[in-house]
Amino acid sequence: MLLLQFSTSHYCRKARLALGYKGISYQVKNLTPGLHTLKLKPLTGLTTVPVLLPELESQPEAINFTQPKAIADSTQIFNYLEQYYPQPPLCLTNPQDQIQAMLLEDWLDESIGTATRFVYYQFRSGEGKSIDPSLSSQMVIQVVRWQYQINAATVEQAKTRLKTAFEVLAVWKDQPYLVGDHISIADLAAAALLSPLALIPEYRSDYPWLFERIKDIHTLCHEPFPPGL
User: What is d(CA 210, CA 167) in angstroms, rounded to the nearest whole number?
Assistant: First the structure.
């Protein structure tokens, strides 16, 4: 399999966690932002990463399925992997638990992952500029801030959303999984989409339990720790 990605994208990290958890061998191809659209648009009709290119010819258990050539979006990659590679499972056996995991994953994906992006790039353009003060890095950061309209007002909104997220995810303090009795798509989404905050000292000091759980999940999924951990 080949994963088309941006190396720094937390949504691509989400897909890598799922591949690692399933024990699937894969390669990555890091795309150049901007030029990536030339590669992705013909494949998926979209311009976002991650995109997974399966190689299923050698998978006899998959012969009864219509084999997709490309899967765009981290959530769709989750769905694909669970269909074609059901072991070990990400789906929970209890239907109500599975519904809750799906709702959490969708909320993390659509709201909290975006909030993380806003707070992270605001930090990298200010207090965290020393992490990589190179011209090329700062240019990328400024382009992202312009693209997503990241400013003081939108960052404050993002911080409020993150505060709510930490309250919801506080169950991780007392139990290893957000929902059910084994790891689910909710755990992988939270571990990936909040991982950029590991570089921000105030979050590391205020929510140590969160980053310990993020490390646990990365270890389980055979994925290197995110920067800051």
Answer: 11
Question: Is 0.85 surpassed by the pTM of this model?
Answer: yes
- Name the percent of the chain in helix, strand, coil, to the closest 5: 60, 5, 35
CB atoms under 10 Å from CB of 163, counted, come to: 11
Sheet hosting strand 27-30, strand order edge to edge: 27-30, 2-5, 51-53, 71-72
CB 218 within 8 A of CB 10: no
Paired residues of 5 in beta bridges: 30
Query: Smallest Cα–Cα separation from 218: which of 9, 20, 4?
Result: 20
In the chain, beta strands by DSSP E: 2-5, 27-30, 51-53, 71-72
Q: How far is CA 21 from the centre of its chain?
A: 14
DSSP track, 26-57:
-EEEEPPTTTHHHHHHHHHS---S-EEE---T
User: Averaged in consecutive runs of 10 residues, what is the pLDDT profile of the chain (229 residues)?
Assistant: 92 97 94 78 83 69 63 94 94 97 97 97 94 90 91 96 97 95 97 98 97 97 96
